Amino acid sequence: MKALISFLLLLSGFLVGCSTMENLFSKNSEKRELQVRDVWVREGTLKENLGFRKINRMSPLILGEALIQSNAIDGIAAYNKDSGQTLWRLNIQNGSEAGAAIIKDRLFFGASDGLFYSVSAKDGKVLWTFPTNTENISEPLLDTSTGVVYFQSGANIVYALDAESGRQIWLYSRQDNSNLSIRGGARPTLDNGHLYVGFSDGALVKLNAKTGSLLWELVLNRNKKFRDIDASPVIDGDQMFVSGYDDKLYCVSVAKGEILWKMDRGGYYPVTIAGEKIFYSTTTGELWALQKSSGQKIWTYTLKDGIATQPKIYKGMVVFGETQGELRFLDANSGKAVASFDPGRGIMSPPLVDEKNDRVYFISGEANVYAIEAKWSYPNWIPYLQ
Length: 386
Description:
By secondary structure, the chain is mainly beta. The protein has one helix at 2-30; strands at 33-43, 61-63, 66-71, 75-80, 86-91, 100-103, 106-110, 115-120, 126-131, 141-143, 148-152, 157-162, 168-173, 189-191, 194-198, 203-208, 214-219, 234-236, 239-243, 248-253, 259-264, 272-274, 277-281, 286-291, 297-302, 312-314, 317-321, 327-331, 337-341, 352-354, 359-363, 368-377.
């Protein structure tokens, strides 16, 4: 009997101890801080840029141990994502400004020298080029099921190429008579055999992905100073979200091309959808969190200067670059600032998040490539309780 009572007392003390430890852990969790530091930094250009500032806005790509990043000055390179060691570099006159796409070990991107490239992602060897005779400033799209790559050139022409050979399959062209245009271009969006693309004349179109034939068009922005639709359409179920630079954010029916709801404030970058929230960077210097179903605003974060890049989700936070500021981390539920990192001269590159390794990668306005570590720390953590 005494043994039983002793056991019950011991068990009671253990449970109280567990409760105390849980409370301690909980209190320490509340006091946690996000520690942000640079792991490595590399000059993205072969030579120092002594000319005017250019727009470095490619979001980096990871293939195995390689981090691939282009600049808008003199080319594209691959770095070891852990150490920053240069693995290969391909020199391109006037660089590659927008974005790239990877399928298996092949890299596809448009450049400012009037060519679209297919390159070996392993060593940077050029496999084929396709002439567009104009600068290419939009990110390409790869359809892995058909082996077709789609992209929009700076002349408002959408091309469909065979990814293996570079052979042209079809093109769709629009004329824009406006003298004012933002430097950008929408990445096509593919859904159920259809392409959705925005153009600098303010039109959003639906194309047959196999033939390039026009299925419908919706002119969203007629009377503004800048009519461009540079933000790639984002599809979620039967709804599509797209914005005009000097216009609004629209929720559009995918099937019929009808506007379901719209919100004031234009946008340059695509929206990011996470659960029932939409995160949207406006061209008026705000980052919005909206309800996906209605567009109702949940919270707003206002930048001091510039605009926010497309936001990415990282461990319950929203991370984005400021075009004239810092890399910022906000609480995704409240919009409260958590941490920041200043690379100097701003960021136009949507960050690449490697959550598994606590890393964020981007290229700065000065064409420097950054690997950032972002980890939670616990200042009052008691080591012997680990």
